[in-house]
UniProtKB/TrEMBL annotation:
Name of the featured protein: DUF1513 domain-containing protein
InterPro entries cross-referenced by the UniProt entry: Quino_amine_DH_bsu, UCP028101
């Protein structure tokens, strides 16, 4: 299936699903007053039926508490470890990031990209919450940059950059206080049009947080597997979800796991099962011995057993978007899985599920708010 056909299919799914939902004043206004009766648990970027965009603070079931308007489509959200502030990043190739207060919904002045830079949709705070690391790229070359920003009051001030690790970085996570992991997609683009598919060099790269030195770099045998989305496991291993840039009929593995000093190991499924994900993994989250990965293009999510690396289930979910593990409030840890049609699924590791319908068109990623915010 060609990309344009995929996009049209997603639009039709969203339109038909939203037709049965009554849009609330919150959705059409794109902002709201905080609801103090609910606990803030989740944050995601969103889209609205009338063409607006926002970052949504939601409760445990995905019901919106308040939202922050965004000037264009957002993507990932970074949260300070104390749970007070968050930053929503523009979808690549983007030109803004928006800092806001999680508890009040108050937003602060937009931080624009530098004239010769794009934001690539993701970032992560240091453990003390004073430094923000963002994925960026040079406009003309897509050479990767990690922007390093200091949080000064309610301003993000760029203090330095790390570069020289590859083309087209996407998600960045903090492995520990001294190490970042970056999904380097390897794709040079003009806007969103790829220009170097035959020569792309994706990689999972580890950088020093202090110097930007490349500490380790690993890749996959198939150079058209663009490494994009990451998740950190409790034992320090990193999971990465891929976007395949090869032939439409190829059913190739889209998820791999990495332990420092070793090779990437791919998770297993049959080729026809991999094709169900339509060559794209959007979000990935680990709970115990299992991983859930979503695919909005495949309208599904998958569950793998990490002990034997085998796929155990593919579940249909129209425009499957974000997934995050909620381990708050003395509850058993569970996945929260969102959809662009507003559906929110809460799922335990043993497979028990509860489904909620919200009035939010969730975008590709969810972040859990630390329990310090009440």
């Amino acid at each position: 299936m060609q990309p344009m056909a995929i996009n049209n299919q997603r639009r039709k799914l969203l339109k038909s699903s939203l037709g049965a939902i009554t849009l609330s004043p919150w959705l059409t206004a794109c902002s709201s007053a905080p609801n103090s009766d609910k606990n803030a648990v989740l944050i995601s970027c969103s889209r609205t039926a009338n063409g607006h965009f926002g970052a949504v603070v939601a409760d445990n079931e995905g019901n919106p508490i308040h939202s922050v308007p965004l000037p264009a489509r957002g993507h990932g959200v970074a949260i300070t470890p104390n749970g007070e502030l968050a930053v929503a990043f523009a979808r690549r190739p983007g030109n803004y990031m928006q800092l806001f207060n999680i508890k009040t919904g108050v937003s602060y002045p937009i931080t624009p990209s530098m004239p010769n830079r794009y934001f690539y949709g993701h970032g992560v705070f240091s453990s003390d919450g004073l430094t923000l690391y963002t994925t960026e790229g040079e406009k003309e070359t897509s050479q990767g940059v990690i922007g390093v920003y200091q949080l000064q009051g309610t301003q993000l001030i760029k203090v330095k950059e790390f570069s020289g690790f590859g083309i087209g970085p996407h998600e960045v996570i903090r492995v520990d206080n001294m190490t970042l992991a970056i999904g380097v997609g390897g794709v040079h683009t003009k806007g969103r049009v790829p220009l170097n598919l035959e020569s792309m060099k994706p990689a999972l790269v580890y950088l020093s947080t202090s110097s930007g030195e490349v500490l380790e770099r690993v890749g996959l045998a198939d150079h058209k597997l663009s490494i994009r989305h990451l998740s950190l496991m409790d034992d320090g291993r990193v999971l990465c979800g891929q976007q395949y840039r090869g032939e439409p009929e190829d059913g190739v593995p889209l998820i791999a796991v990495h332990r420092r000093g070793e090779a990437l190991q791919q998770l297993n499924a049959e080729p026809e099962e991999w094709l169900r994900f339509n060559h794209y993994i959007a979000s990935i989250a680990v709970l115990g011995d299992h991983v859930v990965a979503t695919s909005p293009r495949g309208n599904c999510y998958g569950v793998w057993n990490l002990k034997n690396k085998q796929l155990i289930e593919i579940a249909s979910l129209a425009d499957a978007s974000g997934v995050v593990v909620n381990s708050r409030d003395n509850l058993l840890p569970q996945w929260h899985i969102s959809s662009g049609t507003g559906k929110v699924i809460t799922r335990s590791e043993n497979g028990e599920m509860v489904s909620h319908q919200t009035n939010v068109m969730w975008d590709n990623h969810w972040s859990q708010i630390p329990p310090t915010v009440i």
